[in-house]
């Protein structure tokens, strides 16, 4: 019997560098992958369907909701996002760790469904730094950027619901923090107990007169 994968929930305000950090994390550690969410928001120029998101229409999204195909779904800036139930559960059963890049609304739903999930909240070093990052990435108009800055207050209020907090001031340091969190998650007793069940049985039934 192989041990199931761990489920990692990673949230962050827009512009914090979450996606770049997660990409580097997956590339640097074997046995871990990222769930690709479904969304109704328009595809950005550099994005690809089936790589960054599954870009679908509103009607299809609602149909998936009605069929209970999502583990979690949330509305962010009037666009819908959802995580495939079947894909996540199948991947975890194969012993592969899964990362969900979702906001605090979805994180709450996942924590209710998977109490053993490991959650991480990534923060920028300051509000001004976040503003400059949003300006530089040139993906939103100024009104949307202001909405995203306002949303930081709401999302940060849910920081206490997470297991870990990482500050993305220095990219290498933040990536190192995430790697430590993933590696430590693999050493959790309940997972190790499955992986080394034969050893534990041997040790727990050892008799002195056998030596």
Structure summary:
The chain has 211 residues and is of the alpha/beta class. The protein has 9 helices and 9 strands. The strands form 2 sheets. A 5-stranded parallel sheet has the order 2-7-1-8-9, with helices on both faces. It has a 4-stranded mixed sheet with strand order 4-3-6-5.
Descriptive overview:
The chain is α/β, with parallel strands linked by helices. It has a domain at 7-35 and 97-205: 3-Layer(aba) Sandwich (Rossmann fold), CATH 3.40.50. It is 45% helix and 19% strand. The strands form two sheets. The protein has a five-stranded parallel sheet with strand order 2-7-1-8-9, with helices on both faces. Strand 5 and strand 6 form a beta hairpin. Helix 1 packs across helix 7 (171-185). The chain is globular, with a radius of gyration of 20 Å. The two termini are 30 Å apart.
Write the layout of secondary structure elements.
Layout: E1 7-11, H1 18-28, E2 32-34, E3 38-39, E4 54-55, H2 58-66, E5 70-76, E6 79-84, H3 85-93, E7 97-101, H4 104-113, E8 118-123, H5 127-137, H6 142-156, E9 164-167, H7 171-185, H8 189-195, H9 197-204
Parallel strand pairs: 1-7, 1-8, 2-7, 3-4, 8-9
Antiparallel strand pairs: 3-6, 5-6
Largest sheet: 5 strands, parallel
Tally of separate helices: 9
Topology as a string of helices (H) and strands (E): EHEEEHEEHEHEHHEHHH
User: Shape, please?
Assistant: globular
Strand composition percent: 15-25%
Q: Helix coverage percent of residues?
A: 40-55%
The helix/strand class is alpha/beta
Provide mean pLDDT, rounded: 91
